[in-house]
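Researcher: Good morning. I'm working through a list of sequences from a screen, and I'd like to move beyond sequence-only analysis. For each chain I'm collecting a predicted structure so we can compare shapes side by side. This is the next one on the list. No need for commentary yet; just the structure.
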Amino acid sequence: MVTLLHVSDLHFGAEDRDALDWFAQAVRRERPAAVLCTGDLTMRGSAREYALAQAWLAKLPVPVALVPGNHDVPYYHHMVRRLTTPYARYRALEASMTAPDLPGIAVVPLKTIARAQLRLNWSKGRVSNRDLDVTAQALERQRDRPLRIVIGHHPLVDADTDSAGSTRGGKRALAALARAGAQVVLSGHVHDAFDMTVEADGLPVRLIGAGTLSQRLRSTPPSFNRLVWDGEVLKAEQQSLS
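Model: Good morning. Structure tokens for this chain:
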């Protein structure tokens, strides 16, 4: 039995300290094999917010796997930094974390954000051919693992939630990931949890979204997902702060 805790959208700068403490207590109590965080660690990608995020993550007593969210690049009023070194602070934070090594389980990141897009709303998802190829190749190399999970910030296809990822290239990416062996795709962004199975290129893929631990709530209270793998079946339970 392997337990993983899936969390997303911490939004340091607009964080909910009670929700963060509640989640940290769950990590200390359950000691999962890893925490999987699907982006939006910060609110505006500032140095101060990254320092807060790093200090909090460093106190979690388990390995952490991360992907960046659209809020993790410098905000629009720092356009030069956003266009020239958008991921510098995120990469420094990621390098400070202990990455998980899970027997029988592959956790592969997928970048779904961009420093700029040919549309007005840059917060929405985008999967480039290059980023998709990197993830698909990593999946192919780990086909021998019984459970293969992709983690990205934006939902590749929208669920029935108040907010939407509107991910460009999402359906194409989902089909390619399914062919490469992905069984589960974890995401965040919409701040409400969901769990559904879709067919991609004739193959079933389970899509699981986490809520938020920030003050930026949508229709549900702060939450995270508890995932349990017994070697054959992955069980997912949403844990909500009442």
